Every structure is written in structure tokens, then in C-alpha cells.
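Appendix B: complex inputs.
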Amino acid sequence: MNTIDDNDRNHLRYAEYVLGVLDADERAAVAREIAAHDEAAVAVGLWQRHLAPLAADIPAQTPPREVWDRIIHTLQMDTPVAPRERGSLWNNLRLWQWIGIGASAIAAACVVVVVTQPKPQQQAVSAGVMVSSIKQDNGVAGWTATMDLQRKQIVVVPATPSPIAANRSTELWLIPAGQKPISVGVFTNDATTTLALSPALLAQLGPSAVLAVSVEPPGGSPTGQPTGPVIGKGAIAGAPANATGRQAAAT
Amino acid sequence: MSVTSADEHDELNRLLLQTAQNDRKAFTRLYERTSSRLFGICMRMLADRREAEEVLQEAFVSVWQRSGSFAPGKASALTWLVTLTRNKAIDRLRQRGEVRLDGAAAMENLVDQADGPSTQAEQNQQYLRLRECLDELEPQQRQSVREAFFSGATYNELAERTKVPLGTMKSWIRRSLLQLRACLGT
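Resulting structure:
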């Protein structure tokens, strides 16, 4: 009898994955290999090119119109970005959306926070504030995250987040340049959430790091690394020096 | 065929690349050009209209979100779309965790037709080559590979449907895959 060597065995698993005969656990194992090893990804890609043409033998069927409508709705392509309710300045979504326009707006925004909320702790805060507008893949800002280095907390305010499945959680990650994501915590997709920043996280905050949001099982990733799709990313911008200077002048 | 294979291949690649640039018109056109084929796949695999609609919807939401990862040098747009849709459908089948035994009738209609109903201008070269290689397999083995691809069923489910021992089904398909690899090359 001919024997199947290890190389063949691996290739068989990739072929079986593409063909679709593996059970859920085996599929997940191969999916992890694809993510971790280029060799696996290349082998799977080759089998996809080999086998995908078979789909030509399946008769086409026109889907009902509603499917397209639901796609457009899910991607929020059917509604302009709507302003949300007004609240306190800290929770004022229009402000956060506006901050998301670009880093150039941040200096002014910090001054607004300082000037209009003249509480002592707020003044101390603004020198150590970092902001990130987390954009979704559809190009729309999903959330604005404000990191308060003095209070060691991060406030995540929804802008226009795409809905997620009811049995899923959104998890926030800090990704320092060239490093693995660090979990910041699970937050509510569509409500303001405040999370504590650990010393380890505070040490990594900076313009070279990015924030990312992934969809995870309820309660967050079981592995400590993102397991679901990443649905948003944002660069971190610090409050420019002149904002700090003007804040000092304003007090 | 209304368009040549090469033209359609290029058009779909272009539309997917434009979609990656957040071009909504290209995304709409891509849906118009491919949704029937992809919905056919969903219907065949899930055998449930409501679920097939949901999976098609999920698939196209992902197309918009993940189109940036499409690399035309690695695969054609159609291969990319078919793969994404089948993966969504297979995930749904595994979540469902139930065996559908009503695939047998559909199998009769689809398996080993003299000429595949390839009315669409699919990447013809690759398709014809795959068919040639499939034709070299033993009929039972060829049938198993095709049914596996069309249904997204696990080894267990295929064995149960075909009423052969699990080991036999695994051996049929594994041998077929090794033979296909040799025939198709790398």
C-alpha cells in the first residue's frame, strides 16, 4: 500500500478545508493555521483556485430584491450620518464626531473641553488626553475613544457604529507598532463605555499605536487575542503642545 | 454566452478592486453581476430560502468590508467571491449542526451531467481542466467530491447520505484529492 507522508497529509487537510468536509473544530484549526502560516495560506489559496470553478455547475438563482436592501441597510448606505441626541459636553456625540474629522481639530476640541468645563480635574486632564476616531470598514467613524492619562481611563463614545449580532460583543484592542494586540476591554457597541487603562496599556499609548475593534463571543475573546472580524481601526493622536499651552493660558 | 470569459473576468476584477476603494456604484454593479450565481450556491448548500438569503446578505456585507484583501494576482474576483460565500454557508451549516438528508434528489440532478450547465462565462480554462481531471476519477469518487463541494457536508454527513462507512468515504475523497492535485499541478 502506498503511504501518505506528512506533507501530503497537510495538503490533504487544506484541500479538505476548501472542499468543506471538515467539522467545525477541524475547520477552526485550519483557519488558525492560515492566519499564522503563509505556507498554509498559499496551499489553501491554490486549492481554492483549483476547486472554485466547480461552482459553475450550480444553477444560478436570482435573489429577492430585499436582500440587496438589507445589505445596504446593514452597511448604512441608505441613511446619511444622523446627528444624535444632545447631552453633556463629555457625551456630546456631535463633538466626538467632529473630533473624528481629523487631528487638526483636536487642539481646538481640547480647548473647548477645558474652557467650557472649568472643573479642576478637567483642566489637569487635557494635557494628557489622546483621541482616536475609530473608523469602520465602510469608512464611517464608528466610535471616538478618548484616553485620559491622568485618570487612567478610556471613554468610548459611539458615533455611527454598524449593528452587530445580538449574541456578540465588541472588544477594543490596543496594537502597538509591530506588536500583538493587547485587550483594552469589552465595550457596549452603541452606548458610552468607560474602561480602566492598566499601567501596561498606558505605557503603550502613543501615536505609533492604533486602536482596533473586533467582534467576539459574549464577554470577549476567550484566547486573549482577537478571534472575530476586525470591524474598525483608528490612529491615536495626542493633544498637540499648543493646546496644552493655550489651556494653561485659559486657566 | 453573452460575454467572453476574459472580458467578464476582467470586469469582475475591476469591480472588486473599485469596491475596495469604497466605490458604491462598483459594489452595486458587482452585486448585479454575481449575486445570482452566489445565491445559487447558497440555495444549493443550505436548501432553505431564508437562510440562503441571510448568508448571501452576510457574504456581501463582508465583500464590502474585506474587499481590501482581494489581490488579483492570487485569485480571480469570482474565485474570491465564491470562496467567501461558500465559507459563510459552511459556517452556517456547522452552526446548524444538523444533517440534511434531502440532498439526495438534488444530487441526482447535478452529478455527472454530460455537460455542466456552465452557461456563465466562468474562467473556462480552469473549469475545463478541472472537469478533465475529475473525469479521470472513479465515478463513485468523482461523485463524492462533487457532492462534498456542492453541499458543504462533513465526512460524517456524506457517509450517512451515501450509506457507506465513514472510512470508505474519507478514503474516496482523500484519494480523489491527491489524484486531482497530481492532475491539476501546483
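Chain B has two domains: 1-99, 122-186.
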